[in-house]
Amino acid sequence: MSRFFLLPAAALFTCSCAYIGEPLPPARYVPQRVADLSAFQQGVRIVAQFALPSHTTENLEITKPMRVELRVGSAATPFQTEDWEAASKSFDDIPTDRSPVKYSLPAAEWIGRDVVIGVKVFSENGRTAGWSNLVTLSVVEPLAPPIDVEVAAVAAGVRITWSGTAPHYRIYRRAGKDASALPIQEIDLSTFIDPSAEYGTKYYYSVEAYRTGGDIHASSERSAEVEITPEDKFPPPVPAGLAAVVSTGSIELVWEPSAAPDLAGYRIYRALAAGSFEKLAETHETPSYSDAKIESGKTYRYAVTAFDKAGNESAMSAPVAATVH
Fold it and tell me: What is the pTM of this model?
């Protein structure tokens, strides 16, 4: 005889079922707005710089191609974005293969005017989050690049000189096989000494003029590079303050220490009465010397020089005399 059993309803179902919510809408894939646009004038061109967005407005990583539109238009007052966009000039050949982007365009038609510059980034399907931060730039007559740039090794470093009429200058330096030059100084004069240059290293120097103020951010084209490999041919300063004191069995010499960074030591010279100076000794330590090779009744004259690690020797100090009694 067959038997049937009724199971509780709860046993017929498990509780592992999950609630299925409403389906999520597809991602719109809109690139984030550019927020770091900047612009400056270099010679006869306007240069715009900005970083491409790496994520969408939904914080998804961008993996598909983008398109960038850059616009330049007059800075009307009062400013209305819609009016500016309608009357501005568009540039759509902006490279998007690497970030940050550096794009230049002719400045001629805007010289003497204030312009507003902006960029929009579009997705592959043409969607955009809108204009970047808008930048105002006063376009001025192009600055002439510095001319007659010359370099020379001096005791304090490498001296750079040039000619020009701009209010400010920026000095660039490229060392050895470096691919690009870096700015090392901004100055209002037409000469500069680079104190960080090292002997035996090849350097390439160039100079550009620049002008700033308000919305003016203009620079000239950079001058041609000038090459130099500085060599150490510069002796330390002449020792000062030499004094001679007669002591028991010796004449004690002291002088002021040299501040030369590459000082190697001092040379002591001696002359008998009015005779010629001859090298007496060399010291690599303190600025002093004890001369015990003396005779009673004689007058000795002394002078001191300083020399550096490259072997450069200074001129003699002012001589001093001492008589042994």
Answer: 0.77
